[in-house]
Amino acid sequence: MPQGRRASSGTDDTLAADATSNPGAAASTSSRTSMAPGVSVLAGRYELSGMLGAGGMGTVFRAKDLELDELVALKVLNPELVDSIEALARFKAEVKLARRVTHRNVARTFDFGTHGDLRFLTMEYVDGISLDERIGADPPLTCVEVIALTRSILEGLVAAHAAGVLHRDLKPANVMLGRDGRVLLMDFGIAHALESEDRDRKTKNGLVGTPLYMSPEQVEGARDLDGRSDLYSLGLMVHEMLTREVPFDGPSPFAVAAARLLKPAPKLERAGAPAWFTSLVDRLLETKREGRPADASAALSELADTSSASLASAVATSTPVFVEPA
Questions:
Q1: Looking at residue 193, which CATH number applies to its domain?
Q2: Are residues 107 and 201 in the same domain?
Q3: Domain boundaries, position 48
């Protein structure tokens, strides 16, 4: 594993590979399954068939929708996140908002349900691996593959932002690479649902979201976030895809978050990467959002307009390489 690359973790909030293909994730998250001891069918409809992963927001299971006879991803939310009427109302509102996003690069959010004291979300099941896992696997992603992935992620963001939905927790663990070649963004709106009106509700790290991929304005607690915050997170991800290292690191989540307020992101260097593309990534990582592309649509247009005809053709026909997790 390259120096500076943090370990891929099954404890991230990801709808990633089955626990059977990631024994470490299963071991590290087994204690969380105690939130539903002996439960195999939730709400008389969803039959659990395996744990996919766990994180600060909850535990994700593969489940069969017995009414529709199809697989779904089911996230059982950690009880402390929905411990009040207000918090529950927030989650329901975010689910309603996320359901408005319909795009091939955005995993569908289906429903919000209850089973006794448990609260859960059902989402589109993706048979594949997370981008987080792919970054850590061999062979490394090629420049063409990274550009193709960036295009797909931007297309998903354009659709979501047009529907009025920001991601707020965009990271490699929330991007799935399907065995069928699809690239899908996951977990839209859930981070926003964690924020109370007075912004006192926090995760265990004291921040809403994942510090490693937060925009500077998120770290500062800005109330007026817009699509450029997601673009910054994307810039961090692209930097990592190309170099297998994260631009900012530190001994604690707070140190990682604070680093981007104290210094700009390092300029992206990757042999073989087109200068226009590294320049675009550098602008995605501008500390002040005014220096970034105006929105996801502008970034996508620039990516399409600037690439050479030969590269554009290669990107258009590129399918991100799926690799089996180690």
A1: 1.10.510.10
A2: no
A3: 19-124
Q: Reply yes or no on whether the pLDDT at 203 is more than 50.
A: no
Domain endpoint, select from 124, 144, 167:
124
Whether the bond into 139 is cis, omega within 30 of 0: yes
pLDDT tens digit sequence for 105-115: 999 999 889 99
Whether 261 has a pLDDT exceeding 80, the answer reads: yes
CA–CA distance, 325 with 137 (Å, rounded to integer): 7
Note whether residue 1 is domain-resident: no
Asked whether residue 211 falls in the same domain as residue 81, the answer is no
Report whether pLDDT(19) > 70: no
Q: How far apart are CA 161 and CA 268, in angstroms?
A: 26
What angle do the packed helices 227-243 and 275-284 form, to 10 degrees?
Answer: 130
Residue 10 inside a domain? The answer is no
Q: Which of 12, 13, 132, 169 is catalytic?
A: 169
Can you give the pTM of this predicted structure?
0.82
Q: Which residue has the tokens 């007075």?
A: 198
- One-letter amino acid of 217: E
Total count of residues recorded for the chain: 326
Spatial contact of 74 and 42, defined as CB atoms under 8 Å apart = yes
Distances in Å between the alpha carbon of 25 and those of 18, 71, 174? Answer: 9, 21, 16
| Amino acid identity at 120 | F
- Answer yes or no: do 160 and 48 share one domain: no
**314 closest CA partner among 267, 268, 274, 269:** 274
- Check if 65 is active-site: no
CA distance 230 to 219: 13
Q: Verify that 166 and 99 share a domain, yes or no.
A: no
Nearest CA-CA partner of 149 in 319, 32, 326:
319
